[in-house]
Write a structure and sequence with these properties.
By secondary structure, this protein is of the alpha+beta class. It has helices spanning 2-16, 21-28, 32-44, 74-83, 95-108, 111-121, 144-156, 224-237, 252-258, 282-290, 302-319, and strands spanning 49-52, 58-61, 158-164, 172-184, 187-194, 197-202, 206-215, 241-247, 261-267, 273-279, 296-298. Helix content is 41%, strand content 24%.
Length: 323
């Protein structure tokens, strides 16, 4: 909305000082022409913004100008800044809203606390793009217009049409009753019902979406955490293979990165870990455990142990003749 954009523009000028129209356009995700119109609107409304000409010119506010915002104490603002310092821009298409909210958080502090809170927030890094092994997370893109339609339908309680491509299938249009949105490990899902049956849709597979005017058939109140747990349990209990595994603690994360889920974990007598790991099927379990070599052992089922034994025997035979 334009009112929110005008507030964000004022906050940017307050916190950063002189900024060019191009910089403001980039920060606000609009055109330079729109920024110039917004500057004119602010001037007409009595906000003391003016232009400085020249090579290092731009727009700035008169010194000492403040907007009337609600106050936050130092720790409250720091908590919000830290929460917003991760990859929040990837969650449900709310990147620009997050950036605007963070500017308001900083501006709501007393001037004496603004610099210290901003500096403190820079000392916290939440969910960086790479881990200690330099692995980058697999990011899933959802078109902005599609995400907006999905989000509106969820919040308004309206039916939703989605053009959805299930795994190894061509996209089809479906009309669903949205319940809520969930993000976990950089993947986002739409929880919905379709003809009364529970459905879970991966947002990266939604090619297009359209909010419908009809009200969705769903309860007024929902415990989304409980719904998600129940769906996860059903998903893991059907057409999947649970394998008890012993693993070297140093390779635990490598195992988790290939598994569908882990239901239990406890230390073993020799310092290794015992896990109950869920795989898609026997072939998936064999492939994942083979990657870990002697740093993991499948305790069951016998068919999996035999498959790994046969593979190791064949490899040993292949390289047994050192000549």
């Amino acid at each position: 909305m334009r009112a929110d954009r005008l507030v964000s523009l004022v906050l940017l000028l307050r916190q950063r000082g002189r900024l060019t129209a191009d910089t403001l356009a980039h920060e606000l995700e609009v055109s330079t022409r729109t920024v110039l119109r917004d500057i004119e609107a602010l001037s007409a409304a009595g906000v003391p913004v003016y232009a400085e000409r020249g090579r290092h010119g731009g727009f700035t506010l008169l010194p000492g100008f403040r907007t009337e915002l609600t106050g936050l104490n130092h720790d409250e603002a720091l908590a919000l800044l830290a929460a917003g310092s991760g990859r929040g821009e990837q969650v449900f298409g709310l990147g620009s809203a997050l950036a605007s909210a963070m500017r308001k958080v900083v501006d709501a502090l007393p001037e004496s606390h603004q610099a210290t809170a901003s500096d403190a927030a820079r000392r916290f890094l939440v969910e960086p793009e790479t881990d200690l092994l330099s692995r980058r997370p697999a990011t899933e893109e959802v078109p902005g217009t599609t995400m907006v339609e999905i989000r509106r339908a969820v919040l308004a309680g309206h039916k939703l049409r989605i053009h959805y491509a299930a795994a190894d299938q061509a996209p089809l249009w479906r009309t669903v009753d949205p319940i809520g949105l969930v993000t976990v490990r950089d993947r986002s899902y739409l929880l919905a019902t379709r003809s009364g049956a529970d459905r879970t849709y991966r947002l990266s597979r939604v090619r297009a979406a359209e909010e419908l005017p009809e009200p969705a058939q769903r309860p007024d109140q929902v415990d989304l955490d409980r719904v998600w747990r129940e769906r996860c349990a059903r998903f893991l209990s059907s057409d999947h293979l649970a394998v008890p595994v012993r693993v070297n603690p140093k390779r635990r994360e490598d195992l988790l990165s290939t598994a569908v889920a882990v239901r239990a974990a406890e230390p073993d007598a020799d310092g290794w870990l015992r896990l109950e790991v869920t795989f898609q099927d026997l072939r998936h379990a064999e492939w994942a455990l083979w990657q870990l070599g002697t740093d993991a052992e499948a305790l069951a089922p016998r068919s999996l142990r035999m498959s790994l034994h046969n593979r190791a025997t064949a490899l040993a035979a292949r390289y047994g003749d050192s000549s």
